[in-house]
């Protein structure tokens, strides 16, 4: 399964999203847009114009940010998404 997180190293919302995914046992690819500034444009395009981090994608589906990821948990929708 492919999970991609666009992040910044100092971002508390990024840390929260990574922690949640780790608790779920989900591996992910992290793209730090400060360390790789050319990836910022890619993130904005893939995320439909969103410029904040994190931007989370699961299986190519744009999830949104950390709050959106946590909302999936609250709705009972994250585990099925992670399981495919």
Automatic annotation (TrEMBL):
One of its GO terms (cellular component) is cytoplasm. Keywords: Cytoplasm, Disulfide bond, Electron transport, Redox-active center, Transport. One of its GO terms (biological process) is cellular response to oxidative stress. Belongs to the glutaredoxin family. Has a glutathione-disulfide oxidoreductase activity in the presence of NADPH and glutathione reductase. Reduces low molecular weight disulfides and proteins. Pfam families: Glutaredoxin. SUPFAM superfamilies: Thioredoxin-like (SSF52833). It comes from the Bacteria. InterPro entries: GLR_AS (IPR011767), Glutaredoxin (IPR002109), Glutaredoxin_subgr (IPR014025), GRX_bact (IPR011900), Thioredoxin-like_sf (IPR036249). Residues 3-63 form the Glutaredoxin domain. This is Glutaredoxin. GO terms for molecular function: glutathione disulfide oxidoreductase activity.
């Amino acid at each position: 399964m492919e999970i991609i997180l666009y992040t910044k190293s100092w971002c508390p919302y990024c840390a929260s999203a990574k922690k949640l995914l780790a608790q779920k046992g989900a591996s992910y690819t992290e793209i730090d847009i400060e360390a790789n500034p050319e990836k910022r444009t890619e993130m904005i395009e893939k995320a439909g114009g969103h410029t904040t981090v994190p931007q989370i994608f699961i299986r190519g589906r744009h999830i949104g940010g950390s709050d959106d990821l946590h909302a999936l948990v609250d709705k009972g929708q994250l585990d099925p998404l992670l399981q495919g």
